[in-house]
Design a protein that fits this description.
Layout (H helix, E strand, L loop, with lengths): L7 H7 L15 E5 L5 H14 L7 H6 L4 E6 L4 E10 L2 E9 L8 H15 L4 E6 L4 H5 L3 E2 L7 H4 L9 E6 L1
Length: 175
């Protein structure tokens, strides 16, 4: 699939900055766009409740600032970042990480839109497989084509960072 045949929401996710207001694709009061370095503090703040519950590992603000280009964000109409998802490249595979949707937005379709935008971004980067780890049910991932996998099938550098004490399950999806 070429960029010209991607659905409008996927095209928005591939743009380096939000499209002009007339071309933005908003639904349910939010748009999905690539993160900017200036989104670093919002990414860190959005992650905090998930860190407190143990769903995410704590990451320093410096990581969000330096790796902002990894992230897609879901931005509310008022400009608030209410969802995020990181995609890192490991050769021909990708890893989705730090997936967060604000509590009041869960169940709104925001997580699904972030995943779809990440799939489009991964395909645009010629990635063939995506991996993630979850300490939760994984329902959203499973509903979007992920299946349980083994850590030894994932990119080795990423798999070495998994903390067995957290009880995370590795999931994978072919693109």
């Amino acid at each position: 699939m070429t960029t010209a045949t991607l659905p409008p929401a996927a095209l928005t996710a591939l743009l380096p900055h939000p499209a002009p207001a007339a071309r933005r694709r908003e639904s349910a009061g939010f748009l999905v766009r690539p993160a900017r370095e200036s989104d670093g503090p919002a990414l860190a703040a959005l992650s905090r409740p998930f860190v407190r519950t143990g769903a995410l590992r704590e990451r320093p603000l410096a990581l969000y600032l330096s790796r902002a280009s990894d992230f897609l964000v879901a931005q509310a109409a008022d400009g608030t970042v209410e969802g995020s998802l990181g995609l890192s490249r490991h050769s021909s595979d990708g890893v989705l990480y730090n997936f967060c949707v604000a509590e009041h937005r869960q169940g709104s379709g925001m997580g699904g839109r972030l995943l779809q935008a990440a799939f489009a971004r991964a395909r645009g980067r010629a990635l063939t497989m995506l991996f993630t780890a979850t300490t939760g049910s994984g329902r959203l991932f499973l509903g979007h084509g992920f299946v349980p996998s083994r850590a030894d099938l994932a990119p080795a550098a990423w798999a070495r960072t998994l903390d067995p004490g957290r009880g995370a399950r590795v999931l994978a999806r072919t693109l």
